[in-house]
Fold:
Amino acid sequence: MPASASARRRQLARAWRRTATVSLGAMLLAFAAAAEARPVPPGVVATSQAAALPTPPESAQPQPAGPGRTFAVKSFARGFKAPLWVGHAPGDSAGVWVAQQNGQLYRVRSGKRILKLSIASRTKAEGEQGLLGVAFLPDYAKSKLLVLSSTNKAGDSRVELWKMGSSAKRARLVRTLLRVKQPFSNHNGGNVIFGAGNTLYFGLGDGGSADDPNRVAQTESSILGKIVRTTVSTSGTIRWLDVAYGLRNPWRFWFDKGRNELWVGDVGQNAIEEVDRIPLGESKAPNLGWSVFEGGQRDTAGDDALSGDGRLIWPVAAYRHGDDGCSITGGEIYSGTKIGALKGRYVYGDFCSGRLWSVEPKGDGVGPIRREAASVPQLTSFGSDTDGELYATSGSGTVYKLTK
Ligand SMILES: [Ca+2]
Ligand SMILES: [Ca+2]
Structure:
């Protein structure tokens, strides 16, 4: 695209953005765009109607799922207010940690919960905003350091390094690792997870609205619509590098240590929810296709051109909006010992329907999709304890544990 056209488009997008309002659904966490209007910014046109697009493979299309009755979910802890993260701190085998959208982080032990840290005064829990992700440093047992991902009072993204204190009041901000201005209230991504060593991965959605109006996901110079990484340290320069682009709203992704890759649930817009596998360590950040493709379907209001030189990665699994749901929640590969039928399978689900599925990695894709009999209403997140047993948070306030 010529520079002048590009500048003109940015100008139009800015003008549109100033006047745009985004209506948030009444739903607690309306991650999907099912209720979104589809505004088209005036004057913004597709860059190249003639661009030849690749043909999506079968994996990018919704596939039938076989039935499974392999595990149950049971209530692990109740009475939370909009919990949307669950997990463990390295070395803490007795505790399971739960974060609420309002900024509070709890440690649950033997059915009792203790508030360990709160950023409630720094964030606004509304729609897709609030405390969105937690990642304990690998040496947390010694350093007491953890990373929090949130939106601030103005709705802008923050990734911060915190140090736990002897009480919740004594927890302190060590340093801000990243600030990202958000053009709209939705699609803030927000997942943070450690990979090898102190390498932190952070996911950002396309900034919001619908159809990626500013085409940021396919724009290299924007950090929106990307998964990025950095090396976390208490001092020195923090540099963020692209890991993948072309994402709409990666709502939960997980680091697969054995395969050195990320498993991503990327929330769709009107039609398709998708699971992606992103191999790490490739020389160029791959392209996950949004806003040109939603799953394996053209987003007709989007951009015709795939940008950049990243290899296009198609979903390894997908499902259509309807009975199956409307907003994916990416999960983890089960590494526990209690549920034999889940061993080595990636578990994911849907926020709107509560349905759960699992797939086994196969080559660079997955084997047959198994729809599980168990379900979790208002499924906001998956996480595991130090034994690899899986948990899931529900917007209703309950944290569930997957059991045999
Ligand atoms: Ca946003
Ligand atoms: Ca995609």
In short: The chain has one domain: 68-403. The two ends are 55 Å apart (CA to CA). The helical segments are 3-19, 140-143.
